[in-house]
Each structure stands twice: as C-alpha cells, then as structure tokens.
Write a structure and sequence with these properties.
The protein is α/β, with parallel strands linked by helices. The protein folds into two domains: about 40 residues, no CATH class; about 180 residues, 3-Layer(aba) Sandwich (Rossmann fold). About 35% of the residues lie in helices and about 20% in strands. The strands form three sheets. It has a six-stranded parallel β-sheet with strand order 7-6-8-9-3-10. It has a two-stranded parallel sheet with strand order 1-2. The radius of gyration is 19 Å and the shape is globular.
Length: about 260
C-alpha cells in the first residue's frame, strides 16, 4: 500500500498529502462530475454478491439500510458446522500477546496471523470432510501483515486441498469477491490509535467482499474505542451493529486451543 510507506516528508517533497492519496480515481471523477453539474452517480440498491446477513450489515452501516438482496440464505450457505453465524468477529483482545508490531511505516500483528492460520486449518479440515472446495481471501490494510501472513499460511502449499487462498491488501481486492473473507485489522495498541483504519471507504470494501461468510480477526477493544478522525470511528457503528444482531452476527474471543476437527 503506497500511502503507508511514504513518510510525511516524502509526501511534502512530492507536493501532495496522505488525504489526497487516499482519494480513489473513481472518487475524483465523481467530484469532477458534480462540480460540472453532471449527474455522475446512481446508487445500485440491489446486491447480488453477499449472504443477506452480510449484505444487511453493509447496508445498515454504510448505506442507510437502502440495499436489497437478490440472493437468499440457501444460495450462500458456508457449510461450516463450527461457525454459527455468517458474520463473526474473533477478538484477539484477551490473548496475552495481542499488540501490533511496527515495521517501518507499516504494522503487523502476530496474534492475528496465528489466529487466521488456525481458522484456515479448521476450514480446510471441515471442507475436506464434506468433499467441498471454497475460495478464501485474507485481506488486511497493511503490507507488513501481508508479508507475515504469506510466510505463515503459504497459499501455494500442497497442504491446501479444499481451500484456494489469496492474501491481499484491501485496496488490491476492491471490485473482487470470494466465498469466504477473513479481514485482519492489525491495529492493537494501548493508545487506541487506528491510523488509516478510520477510512470508511476501506472498511466498506473489506466488509463487502464475501459471498458466504465474513470473519473479522482483530482487537475489538482497540477498534471500538479507537480515537476518531474528522469523520468519526466507523468501527463503533460496526461493533454496535454486530452486538444488536446476534441472530446473524457473532462476537467471541479468539481461542487458539480449539481443536481443528
């Protein structure tokens, strides 16, 4: 991710700001169209990708409840007997070594990496037993986390027979989808610093890539109580939604001792 690797001094020399880099080409075109009085954007309200539970979360948190769903629950069953809901947050907050580690301008989080590896192994075992295959994406905002995840998970390994795994940044995954998405949030610190996790657009992308199941892995304490920017902390609204919809959403502490079977 380019903007995480550039220092403020680098940006100043280039004559730009971190906020300017965060604006996508699409957003720039929309702004230009509005400035010229062109009706440039029409909201698509009927989504065909996500399990209705995931779609309703995205609709409520980002679109004022305006999305409708062209798929039903049966079409998007994930088939994992140990995953009770299609949306789940596995929190690392109570693990003994859950804090982030800085690497240059980026960050990684070993607790999340171990947790994601554990969850992927559980999925692999379950889908092998069912004789099924799934496409899985592990996405994260930070390049340092990508490097560590690739070393731990090794998607090209012959071990993965039931899962096809891709590890990528959120930005690289925009416009794409997979059966199951694991979102690694990375940030976990005593100061409640979120960095560019405060960006609502990136969070929207992260939560809307999954067809069947969305698993968030991260420190719910840091994310929910994190210091907000000018637009507020979007994770507060997300966590509130998860707590208020237990019929579709699950929040539980990550347990690395759970058997893989």
């Amino acid at each position: 991710m380019l903007d995480e690797e550039l220092t403020n001094e680098d940006l100043a020399q280039l004559g730009t700001t971190r906020e300017s880099l965060a604006e996508s080409l699409f957003a720039a075109l929309v702004t230009q169209g509005r400035d010229q009085g062109i009706e440039s954007v029409q909201m698509l309200t009927n989504q065909h990708r996500m399990h209705p539970a995931i779609g309703q979360l995205v609709s409520s948190v980002f679109y004022g409840g305006k999305l409708t769903h062209a798929v039903n629950v049966q079409e998007r069953e994930h088939g994992l007997p140990w995953l009770e809901r299609p949306v789940a947050w596995f929190s690392t907050a109570k693990l003994s070594r859950h804090l982030e580690t800085r690497h240059g301008q980026s960050f990684y989080n070993r607790a999340e990496i171990q947790g994601i590896s554990h969850l992927l192994h559980r999925m692999e075992r379950s889908y092998r037993e069912r004789g099924e295959r799934r496409e899985v994406a592990v996405i994260t905002p930070y390049n340092a986390q990508i490097v560590e995840l690739l070393a731990e998970v090794t998607p090209a390994s012959d071990f993965w027979q039931a899962l096809s795994i891709e590890v990528a940044t959120i930005d690289a995954f925009q416009g794409r989808d997979r059966d199951i998405v694991l979102y690694s949030t990375v940030r976990s610190n005593k100061e409640g610093t979120l960095g560019f996790l405060r960006d609502r657009r990136r969070l929207n992308v992260a939560l809307s890539r999954a067809r069947e199941a969305l698993l968030i892995v991260g420190d719910i304490w840091t994310l929910e109580r994190g210091r907000a920017g000018p637009e507020g902390n979007p994770y507060q609204e997300l966590v509130r939604y998860l707590r208020n919809h237990p019929e579709d959403c699950l929040i539980e502490d990550l347990d690395l001792e759970v058997p893989l079977g």
